[in-house]
Amino acid sequence: MAKRNTYQTDEELSKSFSWQDYKRLGTYIKPYKKAVIGILLIIVIANLVGMLGPYFMKLTIDEFIPNKEKVKLLQMGAVYLVSLLIISWCMRYRILKITELGQKILKDMRADIFTHIQKLPFSYYDSKPHGKILIRVVNYINTLSDLLSNGLINFLSDIINMLITLVVMFMIDVKLALYSLIFLPLLIIATFVIQRFQRVAYQTLSNKQSNLTAYIHESIAGVRITQSFTKEEKKQEIFEDLSNQYRTSWMKAVQIMRLLWPAVELTSVFTICFLYYIGAKQIGIEVTTGTLIAFMAYMTNFWNPIINIGNFYNQLVTATAYLERIFETLDEEPLIKDKENAIELPPIKGDVVFNQVVFQYETEGAKILNGLDFKVEAGKSIALVGPTGAGKTTVINLINRFYDVTDGSVMIDGINVEDVQLLSLRKQIGVMLQDTFIFSGTILENIRYGKLDATRDEIIEASRLVRAHDFIEKLPNGYDTIVEERGSTLSSGQQQLISFARVLLADPKILILDEATANIDTATEELLQIGLNELLKNRTSFIIAHRLSTIKNCDQILVIDGGRVKEKGSHEELLQTKGHYANLYNSQFENK
Length: 592
Ligand SMILES: Nc1ncnc2c1ncn2[C@@H]1O[C@H](COP(=O)(O)OP(=O)(O)OP(=O)(O)O)[C@@H](O)[C@H]1O
What we know:
This protein is of the alpha/beta class. The protein has helices at 20-29, 33-50, 52-64, 70-119, 122-127, 130-172, 174-179, 184-221, 223-228, 232-282, 289-331, 392-399, 422-426, 443-448, 456-465, 469-474, 492-506, 522-536, 571-577, 580-591; strands at 352-360, 367-376, 381-385, 407-412, 415-416, 429-432, 441-442, 482-483, 510-514, 540-544, 556-561, 564-569. Helix content is 62%, strand content 10%.
């Protein structure tokens, strides 16, 4: 499992980046081979046509002007004009196709990472702030946009351009061509030296960016608490600190990145000066004026791609810092997954057995459950009671395999939950957590989440049964009223009634209710109790409630403490035992 992380700590990479990862990036480009070849073809055409300009200049200076060949000059002008039109069409086509290609690749990548993170287990989400996951799916992928669209194809185009120019230069004058390469090795060395620092700087930058996003994400989620505790100033302080760290690392990364550009520029200027010097000395002896001027134009043609390649290299090193995070996420093992020979769980009756279950959240962590043993018959209701932190939520998280047991087994209808296909397991279990999740959309859509093909009538019927219909009808647009994400425009009780309807619609054989009635006042509780009774009919249900009045009617009550079952029995039985449950119940009763 990944090491736990917060917004204050930089994430360490689980493995270092290797050139193989670029190959992996290539697999995203592969499906678009045809498009890439088409674009490259256009680039070759544009480059070949582009070679005409300096050559025409050489002809003009060395032949047409001295020999006053007006007709040839005009003919050449016309050809030159056509060549410019071809180049500009190629350029337009190239930009369009490259952008299209880059966006398609990014879309594939984004889809891959999103599909993958949906399969990752709870333990992954426990291990880092959600903002740090978010930034990988959104921002890091976006930073690759330029690399994949312009960078890569421009790089190939520049290589082609450089090679064609080099061939033409050698064809015109071998000596001058060789002189023009003299400073290139120096540049290559400088690039490699700078790259090492640059990569580290960009890794740091991506970390700081990730920390800041995690903090902003957390702050938005907790804004109500911040405002009610009036802790805005403190939050601002932490934000400024993280923001400063981000800015500083950004400046450092950019400063290092900018070192490459002067190195390339200087080498290019030195080479051009050097060639002018050599060329000027040879004019009239071995070199004509036209050749030297054409040569200089080719030189610019030769150096421009090198400058661009330098920039691409910069971009690549920068993107590497993000790419390794993206691949790291993609390589994260979905630990909770179907075994190779997993069977589809047949429609269940709902018998649940915990066999000597041991559970730890972290390998080195404490044993939360330590030999937990119990049985629930199909259709019965069981309440889990125990002090806070005893492991009640943990128990129910094991039933639908949000986590896997460390030892022992959880069986449904005699089948180990680890031997069945996850989808077939979870489809038959309904869960209502303490924090009812309401998605942005209409009430109807929110209830329909339980059964995507449910008709409007089915939804209304379910709502009626759990007593949600009356309040929904009173909303401005009834079932079509739009609610905000997390249901912020609804009361807690209303949110819970909606989630009751949602679960009823899903019609699971096993139902899990974790503190589902915790946020509700006594009047609403009575209403909910009626809804709840409807919900519980003919299902095996696990109920966690701190208010013992809500679980009195359960067939069985388990008191969990110290990772084991401490007491077991019906409400009456446990009261007679005069143990932990009886004490708890009596103290709640006395407090009323
Ligand atoms: N994701 C997690 N990672 C690590 N430890 C966890 C995680 N979730 C819970 N724990 C720990 O496991 C123990 C049991 O937690 P659990 O939520 O199951 O208790 P609970 O009985 O449901 O508590 P409560 O009544 O307060 O809801 C606690 O000590 C808690 O700190």
